[in-house]
């Protein structure tokens, strides 16, 4: 049976309100989301050249920074010359801007939770509360940008919050937050937020507002969701188009940028596919055109292509140019 959102459950901090429509019936038998597809984009001018300057720049070296994962391993960052030769590598995610190199730093902190009444004679004492605090730390100076702050438990008996960089394009970090909360209802709830952070300016960018051709993306996503709907009649009656909730970068074997769009629509709790928040099903479709501010990073630099040819097992998360702009 599909249940409504339990009374007293904290409202999730989502960019979309569709996750709160929990009264929809007709659970799908096999919900799925589409696989990312390669993006065909027109050629774009390469980013302006950078040059390492200063004592630290000379010590670290490297014209290009590339980070990624091999298999299920943790992320690592490689410092490369312009022609793709490896100068050094280090654990973690590091991106470069005109202000220097920034390291992604995530720490788990405790969050205070609350007791709640599960029934007339049953009270649950405060449960586990954990959250991520995510910052960017500037190499050399230790200056910090607070990117993700731990959420307030807001009456939850249990809360588990995580923040992850799902990709980057130059100085732009694409971040997904997932928060599980439980407040003595029939079940817990997963809320998801999407953020794009400009490490150069130290600010959030509303990149979803810069995506073009959204109606076409909604049509493609709806077709995929309807095709996978267990009840064809329910699919025909679904009038609300899926909402654009996330875009994500990906890179092919040469390092060329692809962009995919995730769109989600409301579903009953048991019908959700788990790919976005609770009470939703979602589909991933290729964006027809990268947002204009990302265009300079669509074509890969020759050095990155050479590096990837020697590292075919690397799943690239993103790349940037080291040093300061001339």
Question: Main attributes?
Answer:
disordered N terminus; eight-stranded mixed β-sheet; 326 residues; single chain
Low-confidence stretches: 1-61
Kindly state the percentage of residues in helix: 10-25%
Q: What is the overall number of helices?
A: 4
Described by the principal axes of the CA atoms, the overall outline is globular
Radius of gyration: 22 Å
Fold and architecture overview:
There is one protein chain. This protein has one domain (18-310). Strands 5, 6, 9, 10, 11, 12, 13 and 14 form an 8-stranded mixed β-sheet that branches. Strands 4-3-2-18 form a 4-stranded antiparallel β-sheet, with helices on one face. Helices cover 11% and strands 40% of the residues. By secondary structure, it is mostly beta strands.
Short description:
The protein has 326 residues and is mostly beta strands.
List the helices and strands and how they pair.
Blueprint: E1 50-51, H1 54-60, E2 64-70, E3 76-80, E4 86-91, E5 94-97, E6 100-110, E7 116-119, E8 122-124, E9 129-138, E10 144-148, E11 158-169, E12 172-182, E13 189-198, E14 203-205, H2 214-227, H3 232-237, E15 243-251, E16 257-266, E17 280-286, H4 302-309, E18 314-321, E19 324-325
Parallel strand pairs: 9-11
Antiparallel strand pairs: 1-19, 2-3, 2-18, 3-4, 5-6, 6-9, 7-8, 9-10, 11-12, 12-13, 13-14, 15-16, 16-17
Keywords: Signal
Organism: Sorangium cellulosum (strain So ce56) (Polyangium cellulosum (strain So ce56))
Protein name: Secreted protein
